[in-house]
Amino acid sequence: NVLSVFACGTGLWNMYGRYTQELGVYAKEEAARLRESGQRRSVSRTLDLLEYDKGRCAKCRICTVRCQKFLISRVGEDWIFLILLGLLMALVSWVMDFCIAICLQAQKWMYGGLDSNVFLQYLAWVTYPVVLITFSAGFTQILAPQAVGSGIPEMKTILRGVVLKEYLTFKTFVAKVIGLTCALGSGMPLGKEGPFVHIASLCAALLSKFMSLFGGIYENESRNIEMLAAACAVGVGCCFAAPIGGVLFSIEVTSTFFAVRNYWRGFFAATFSAFIFRVLAVWNRDEETITALFKTSFRLDFPFDLQELPAFAVIGIANGFGGALFVYLNRLIVQFMRKQKAINRFLMKKRLLYPALVTLLISTLTFPPGFGQFMAGKLTQKESLVTLLDNRTWAKQGIAEEFDYIGHSEAWKHPQVNVFVTLVLFIVMKFWMSALATTIPVPCGAFMPVFVIGAAFGRLVGESMAAWFPDGIHTDGTIYPIVPGGYAVVGAAALSGAVTHTVSTAVIVFELTGQISHILPVMIAVILANAVAQSLQPSLYDSIIRIKKLPYLPELGWGHHEKYNIRVEDIMVRDVRYITLNCSYRDLHNVLLTGHLKTLALVESTESMILLGSIERAQLQALLSLQLGRPRRLAYIRERAVEDKKRLSVVSNDSSENSSHRASQEVRFQVRGHSGQRCKKCFQPFKAHYFQSHRKKCLQNVTAEFCMSSKITEWEEKQLDEQVNFNNCKIDPAPFQLVERTSLHKTHTIFSLLGLDHAFVTSIGRLIGVVSLKELRKAIEGSVTVKGAKVRPPLASFRDSGTSSSENEATELHKLWDRHKSMPLPREHTPSESDEKSQ
Amino acid sequence: NVLSVFACGTGLWNMYGRYTQELGVYAKEEAARLRESGQRRSVSRTLDLLEYDKGRCAKCRICTVRCQKFLISRVGEDWIFLILLGLLMALVSWVMDFCIAICLQAQKWMYGGLDSNVFLQYLAWVTYPVVLITFSAGFTQILAPQAVGSGIPEMKTILRGVVLKEYLTFKTFVAKVIGLTCALGSGMPLGKEGPFVHIASLCAALLSKFMSLFGGIYENESRNIEMLAAACAVGVGCCFAAPIGGVLFSIEVTSTFFAVRNYWRGFFAATFSAFIFRVLAVWNRDEETITALFKTSFRLDFPFDLQELPAFAVIGIANGFGGALFVYLNRLIVQFMRKQKAINRFLMKKRLLYPALVTLLISTLTFPPGFGQFMAGKLTQKESLVTLLDNRTWAKQGIAEEFDYIGHSEAWKHPQVNVFVTLVLFIVMKFWMSALATTIPVPCGAFMPVFVIGAAFGRLVGESMAAWFPDGIHTDGTIYPIVPGGYAVVGAAALSGAVTHTVSTAVIVFELTGQISHILPVMIAVILANAVAQSLQPSLYDSIIRIKKLPYLPELGWGHHEKYNIRVEDIMVRDVRYITLNCSYRDLHNVLLTGHLKTLALVESTESMILLGSIERAQLQALLSLQLGRPRRLAYIRERAVEDKKRLSVVSNDSSENSSHRASQEVRFQVRGHSGQRCKKCFQPFKAHYFQSHRKKCLQNVTAEFCMSSKITEWEEKQLDEQVNFNNCKIDPAPFQLVERTSLHKTHTIFSLLGLDHAFVTSIGRLIGVVSLKELRKAIEGSVTVKGAKVRPPLASFRDSGTSSSENEATELHKLWDRHKSMPLPREHTPSESDEKSQ
User: Fold this and answer.
1) Residue B132 reports pLDDT greater than 90
2) Region (Disordered) spans which residues (chains A, B) (predicted)?
3) Beta-carbon separation of A268 and B564 below 8 A
């Protein structure tokens, strides 16, 4: 029973990632420690040497060395890292805003300069964004396709513990920054906030690498994850100058479980970043002092009446439906584009055609002298938001009020058309435009467009209320007219909260506007919007995660009683690939050919099934290649050759043939060695299916080659029949185990807490099954297999709560599994395989 | 190797509590499920029956039954629970505020009515609070001593997974509510926020019990913890009408790891609660509409100048030191009172003397015609806060300004004394008064007093700035005078943040004042204050946790590199109490006598040491008592009696003696059975040491009794030598295991994530040690054992970072442990025992 293993304990709990990385991290850590201690030793040795040298200069040098030591140790501090990150991101954000403003000004200038000819004006209005978007799409495509989209879904996956390596490189950083600047400079309804989360994370990853050149402690995996979590907060914080909202939003959007100790990091970095971002604006003479980005000035003494609350609630509920519709529309467009194979093939060939066409359509519709005049088309996103949050009332009794529409507000006023019609048109057009624009393959977010639409909807309700109650609702005493700007604030928070499934948009709204007087209406609307939207659709980010097929774990809703009734034994896969302690290399080979899990269970014997530990696939492959690999082959051939020589020393005419045979074999071995190296590709985290088949091919090649030389084959057969020697193999002696009656709720909690990827199910130490993210996901999403195509949203609590149908489903699931159990299926692998195909 | 166990899998991961409870929960869950399904069956049966009955009435009744079914299912929903909780807490908060206001008014009325005679006035001023505080202390002491203090430390411990059962009972609720009302009504510098967290949790626990009468799903342990987390948010939310700040504050104060899905619950309940709380004020005609509790009206266009930021930073740093000093002072007073044995003995006899004396001292000093006139003594806490946040400037060029001090502001103006002197006196006096008052054994918090002191300090700095720059700092163009009220806001947030070690006080401040314009100064000051305070002292709540010796796990600081270098093998206890599969009852008995862990490891054999599972102490005790218990004894005696009768049927004169002997033995057994029942006390979670000795005594009694009858002893000896039969014993087949090289950082994360209490350390399946919270705590707090009495604060990153001393400490610790390892100590238990004594 005693098993000699290489003690590699650090990787036991794959807290934030898989075992493979942990090992790497451990090795790196050790190396860093050695390096560091070496450094220290050399420093102290220098000191010792200097102590003997009693000149004046020596003291100075001691001092210098001490300072150097002090600085190096300081560099390792988190807060220096966070300050640098905040500073860097503030600069990036400010410079980007500056460039975007210049781009937008350029468009306005061109459009304004050509006012003699409408056609030329149109051409200028349309060409400019088309060129910018096409450039952005092309640039991103060429440099780093990973930079496309908002990046929040990817960050969520990375913080979940999955490694998407290409997503945190310098190339991606450059592509994202430049692509985003161009995309936003085009004036399309796109946002900056999602990409900024990604950019901040990129910044953190790069900065971390850079600082590890000095310190040596920036190598720890879990520390990096903590830094990434802080970076997400910085991203939102410096984008909106909203430190608190940024921290909360990033937590809500990226985490399932949150360590409160990271909270403080996030606050620190985000505050510093927001501070620098706004100070830059003051230094640039844009602002007189540090204020909010979209400062409002509603009255403080009586922000709203109690009787206006139903209107706010209506905004919340309507925006909940609107948010769900937006997510649905966005997904529909993507799926439509994918399904239409003819279009798809054409577009894939001309990759830049789709962005150009979409941009052309949208910019044509917003052309101010054309249809744009009915939807305030000439305003940029920022300008429309500023006007929507204005604290004056635009309409009274349905007629546009006769105050002077200063500045941009005049865009909303049309001589023939009522301001209500303009608002409705704005909302409807911008709604589908935003949903469409966010599918363009450029770096872009959807938060800001949604925010503006929500503000417009709020404004619409507010203006209607103001028209309905021109003297306000308050009955006794003073007249407090209704403030439609307050409604706009509520609407903006509600719609963006509904789309992203977050409550912290409320805080972002307060920080953006610099006023918190509408706190209760905003909170009520956001919560109602969330309740409605969560019951209808997943959040935008989860929707993208599903579209992109990133590995994820759905959330458990509230009030799902059945989660406590389903047990792990109901959902686990009973057909586990395992290896026994006394297995032969042939068994190993067979297991590697059939299985697809990244780690394999090691059991005592097939009879006892006592789980001893788990071994990584790579380790086993290494074992196999060690047994059948080149050195041993060469040794064998050399041995045989010596034997042959001894035997055939008389028959000398055969020797040349033999040597040529040997040479040809060596060549083949080299080729094989090469293909063996290529097999490392097999362990990349993604496109597992593709690589699966690739790997199979590789191994088939190997087996095919086996047949070429019968003697070699014979040798190989002999080698394969030998018992495996696990002596130098890294075994995880305590893989994650659950017992068979653990509830689904608890399993989910453990998986998301520890960032697990799979867990073995044991009964009194005996392995009886395995649960991976996939099974868990299926079980949580309910009855995908039972009821066919119906995909249940993760938080569909409002839809099916109260009825006992869900519980019936659960029992049906039970029955199904029980049937599975009783049925003498040879291997239950079929469903999962078909699932793999469908993915 | 096959081991038949009672499958009790749910308890495998003691997620939020100990294994014992989980089992209870599992049983309850099962019962609830059965009950529920029974209910449903009966309902459906009724429906079936009714379907046959074809009258009109039947339809109605079907409808009624359906409605009933629907309602019952709805009651199970979380959101109904949260709404009820919010409503209840808002009512409690409002009613309490109302009573407190009446109490304070009564004092003012008495004081005002007696203005003819200063002595009578003094008597009235002093007697009133003394009576109230004494009543509060006495009432709490008699009804539920658990209600004393803020309750946040206890809630933190409960949410950590430890069960403090008496803390969530109806008695405690009543004691806390009434005690708190009286304490706050006395006008002492006490707060309402901490106790409100406790009250909300009490409310949630009671409501949960109440609703389980209908639903049946309110029994799940982890669900209850989730609800308690939401309740904490409600507590803060409805105390300050600050939903967002409430949620964040409760997270920061009570959690280490936070599930984002609870976040939403907290927001929902806290918002609803805050809404109702403020609506009640509107209905009571206190307010015209829903506004902030301490509404400010600073100018919006230019809240502060960039050049004022250093002053804000100074406030932050100074308040950081102040916060640390407050915590230190508070602890010092408590420890002083405990150490002075003479005083202590006297005070323990007259328990109400201490509160009365403290109240007398404080109220004497604040007597308005006396010393109180120099420190605005006649203002209540609320009034002083309102005046401090006033947006007018009190002083110009050092001379009190000549505007009319309306309302309460005049209290700050003294004909002879400068306003600065008044402010300084106020700060100094209130500082020690608050630190002293919070040690009174009544339900009280420290947040509000600290908040007021912070505001006063901010005001002081603000007034100084206003006197220094009478025309404001801004150089070009418009004159923007300095707003000292803004400084007060910053100071309040910074000091309360420093004392509680939270950042979310910033959010609370915005919600309390209804203005967010000072967001960046507030954030900067809060973060600086936190940085300073965390490096000097633990938070007030952690300090109380240590004083009260509640089980806790300190936080890991940031930038502690050594945490990655210490491994579990360095800190684990190598001398593990275990039982083997083939052990005798005697071994069991011995193990139970010596060990103190709540669960014991079950290994295959002493040679192999392969960990098979863990068994609770209670289970083992049950096994032992089953083997030596009354039924088997009686059976044995009866058997022997039959034998005796057979043998001694001739010698009939002996029979009477024999029967009397039997009777006396039966009596003794009953006594023993009784004492056995009393032994259940041994399993209470606290005062383990005391009960340890108690248990020893019990068992010694048992052993003493053994000697009384030699035959019984012989029988018992025989019984003890038998091999243990684990057939009906509940064995946890997968207790939490770590491998020996897991880093301290990772261990800490796992312990706090999963709420563990201990974990076994294994090496290739073989048990080599055990780590419990205690070892972990010692290792994190650094060198308590190595360096003697020095207790290091948990986040002392600023103090010792940069120097390599901490790393030296780590290596010293390493060495120490290595020495321990190499030294042939018979049992390494001595350090932990001595530690137990010192506690």
Assistant:
1) yes
2) 795-839
3) no
Each residue of A694-751: pLDDT tens digit?
Answer: 555 555 555 545 444 667 777 777 777 888 777 777 777 667 777 676 777 777 777 7
Q: What share of chain B is helix, strand, coil (3-state, %, to 5)?
A: 65, 5, 30
The string of DSSP letters for B741-769 reads T-BHHHHHHHHHHHT-SEEEEEETTEEEE
Query: Nearest C-alpha of chain A: how many angstroms from B827?
Result: 26
Residue B455 β-bridge partners: none
Which of B263, B304, B738 lies closest to A289 in CB terms?
A: B304
B57: phi then psi, degrees, rounded to nearest 5: -55, -35
Q: What is the overall mean pLDDT for chain B?
A: 74
Burial per residue of A424-454, b for 16 or more beta-carbon CB atoms within 10 angstroms, e otherwise: bbbbebbbebbbbbbbbbbbbbbbbbbbbbb
What confidence tens digit (pLDDT) does each residue in A607-645 have?
878 777 788 887 788 888 877 777 777 787 788 778 777
Q: Does B799 touch chain A (CB under 8 A)?
A: no
Contact A185, A99 (CB under 8 A): yes
Output the CA torsion sign for A403, A407, A412, A417.
positive
Q: What is the mean pLDDT of residues A457-478?
A: 83
Of B114-118, B210-214, B240-244, the range with the lowest mean pLDDT is B210-214
What distances in angstroms separate CA A776 from CA A342, A556, A600, A839, one per listed residue? 36, 11, 19, 16
Phi, psi dihedrals of residue A514, rounded to the nearest 5°: 75, 10
**Rg from Cα positions in chain A:** 32
CB B107 within 8 A of CB B329: no
Rounded-to-integer distance, Cα B488 and Cα B429, Å: 18
Q: What contacts A787, CB < 8 A, 6 or more positions away? A: A809
Does A510 contact B at CB distance below 8 Å?
A: yes
* Assigned token pair, B18: 């100990």
Percent of chain A with pLDDT over 70: 71
Q: How far is B6 from chain A (nearest CA, A)?
A: 10
Cβ contact (<8 Å) for B290 and A304? yes
pLDDT at position A316 over 90: yes
- Among A212-226, A608-622, A636-650, A752-766, where is mean pLDDT lowest? A212-226
Q: What span, in angstroms and rounded, lies between the C-alpha atoms of A98 and A100?
A: 5
pLDDT band at A81 (very low <50, low <70, confident <90, very high): confident
B634, amino acid identity: L
Pick from B40, B79, B762: which is nearest to A734 by CB?
A: B762
When mean pLDDT is compared across A129-133, A516-520, B16-20, the lowest value belongs to: B16-20
Q: Dihedrals φ, ψ of A600, to 5°?
A: -120, 145
CB contact under 8 A, A73 and B803: yes
- Nearest-angstrom CA–CA distance, B802 and B559: 9
- For A484, phi then psi, to 5°, come to -65, -25
For A300, the closest of B268, B288, B297 (CB atoms) is B297
- Measured between beta carbons, the chain B residues lying within 8 angstroms of A291 are 303, 517
Distance (Å) from the C-alpha of residue B751 to the closest C-alpha of chain A? 11
Closest chain B residue to A288 measured between Cα atoms? Answer: B302
Compute the distance between CA of residue B320 and CA of residue A757 in angstroms, rounded to an integer: 43
Inter-chain residue contact A507 with B507, CB threshold 8 Å: yes
Q: What radius of gyration, in Å, describes the C-alpha atoms of chain B?
A: 32
- Counting beta carbons within 10 angstroms of the beta carbon of residue B116, is it exposed (0 to 12), middle (13 to 18) or buried (19 or more)? exposed
pLDDT at B108 over 50: yes
Q: Are B14 and B161 in contact (CB under 8 A)?
A: yes
Q: Is A67 on the interface with B (CB under 8 A)?
A: no
CB A173 within 8 A of CB A195: no
